[in-house]
């Protein structure tokens, strides 16, 4: 009997077709498998799971997956998967590194430019019929050129952002678990900050690219926000819970920081009510990797890991496990 794969949401069709050539494939309705119980109820029928970052692949789900051989997340981040439980139940876990670096880095730059030059605010003003006269003092923003970018998390995406920012004339400082390779530091002319405190005091823009772990949960909290100069812009395309949203909303409403560009939220798809009304804040629905090329590459990488495991390839030959 053909092995079976559950893809929890519709993804790029050529990826589904690739898996359908080999396996029995079911594709869930959008949002259905955000519910842990529904996922746990359905999982026993499958040998492989291709979940979204919004699906809670918990111990309960993994334990229920009596035939489950692999979970191939449709994302680079995997904080939605209980890795310990996967290990305990001998289920392989794959993610999708590398393929979304450019898309996420470009998108981050887009947020940086949009917030610092007040693009959405300006468009709103125009569409509301308020543009009656060219004003020399209208919509003054900050240039990226000659300003300092503080990167928290200098992995693939952080590095991609830093490279692009440097090309725009920004100075780069960064905080990471450890210093990056000296060649990369030299290429970016980047200065290492050993603490987040030190980094935020010197940054015009702070951009977050660390994974969500126990250590980074609410890393950007009231104390850290209070150290930011009052025109600092915070950009988050990593995971919502890296930021204490209550504290951020407070800082934006008070004007104690300059603005924010947020693609991710702690309780997605819910938006913190105070962030909804926060000034100088651009909010987007977790779309940093949403380009056609990247979403296809993400799907293909996840599908290849599934094929590798279900065909019994040695795990050392599956690079994204
Ligand atoms: C990921 O892959 O982790 C991203 O957040 C998706 O955009």
Automatic annotation (TrEMBL):
The entry's cellular-component GO terms read: cytosol
For the D-isomer specific 2-hydroxyacid dehydrogenase catalytic domain, which residue ranges apply?
5-316
Q: Which GO terms describe its molecular function?
A: glyoxylate reductase (NADPH) activity; hydroxypyruvate reductase [NAD(P)H] activity; NAD binding
Asked if Oxidoreductase is a keyword of the record, the answer is: yes
Q: List, alphabetically, the CDD domains matched.
A: GDH
- Segments spanning the bilayer are none
Please provide the record's keywords in A-Z order: NAD, Oxidoreductase
Q: Which InterPro entries match?
A: D-isomer_2-hydroxyacid_DH (IPR050223), D-isomer_2_OHA_DH_cat_dom (IPR006139), D-isomer_DH_CS (IPR029753), D-isomer_DH_CS1 (IPR029752), D-isomer_DH_NAD-bd (IPR006140), NAD(P)-bd_dom_sf (IPR036291)
Entry-linked SUPFAM superfamilies: Formate/glycerate dehydrogenase catalytic domain-like, NAD(P)-binding Rossmann-fold domains
Task: Please list the residue ranges annotated as the D-isomer specific 2-hydroxyacid dehydrogenase NAD-binding domain.
Answer: 109-288
Q: Which family does the similarity line name? A: Belongs to the D-isomer specific 2-hydroxyacid dehydrogenase family.
Could you tell me what this protein is called?
A: D-glycerate dehydrogenase
UniProt organism field: Fodinibius salipaludis
């Amino acid at each position: 009997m053909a092995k079976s794969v559950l893809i929890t949401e519709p993804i790029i069709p050529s990826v589904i077709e690739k898996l359908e050539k080999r396996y029995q494939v079911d594709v869930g309705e959008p949002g259905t498998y955000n519910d842990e119980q529904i996922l746990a109820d359905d999982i026993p029928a499958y040998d492989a799971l291709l979940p979204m970052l919004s699906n809670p692949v918990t111990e309960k789900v993994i334990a229920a997956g009596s035939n489950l051989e692999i979970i191939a997340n449709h994302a680079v981040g995997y904080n939605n998967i209980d890795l310990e439980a996967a290990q305990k139940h001998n289920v392989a876990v794959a993610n999708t590194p590398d393929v979304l670096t450019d898309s996420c880095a470009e998108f981050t730059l887009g947020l940086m430019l949009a917030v610092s030059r007040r693009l959405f605010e300006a468009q709103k003003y125009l569409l509301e019929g308020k543009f009656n006269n060219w004003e020399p003092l209208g919509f003054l923003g900050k240039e990226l050129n000659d300003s300092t970018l503080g990167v928290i998390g200098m992995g693939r995406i952080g590095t991609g952002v830093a490279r692009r920012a440097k090309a725009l004339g920004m100075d780069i400082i960064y905080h990471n678990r450890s210093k990056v390779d000296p060649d990369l530091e030299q290429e970016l002319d980047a200065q290492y900050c050993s603490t987040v405190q030190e980094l935020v005091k010197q940054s015009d823009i702070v951009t977050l690219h660390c994974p969500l772990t126990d250590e980074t949960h609410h890393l950007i909290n009231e104390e850290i926000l209070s150290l930011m100069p009052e025109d600092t812009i915070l950009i988050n395309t990593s995971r919502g819970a890296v930021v204490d949203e209550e504290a951020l909303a407070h800082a934006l409403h008070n004007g104690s920081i300059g603005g924010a560009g947020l693609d991710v939220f702690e309780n997605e798809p819910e938006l913190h009510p105070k962030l909804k009304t926060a000034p100088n804040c651009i909010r987007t629905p977790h779309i940093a990797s949403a380009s056609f090329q990247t979403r296809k590459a993400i799907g293909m990488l996840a599908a290849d890991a599934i094929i590798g495991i279900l065909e019994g390839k040695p795990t050392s030959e599956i690079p994204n496990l």
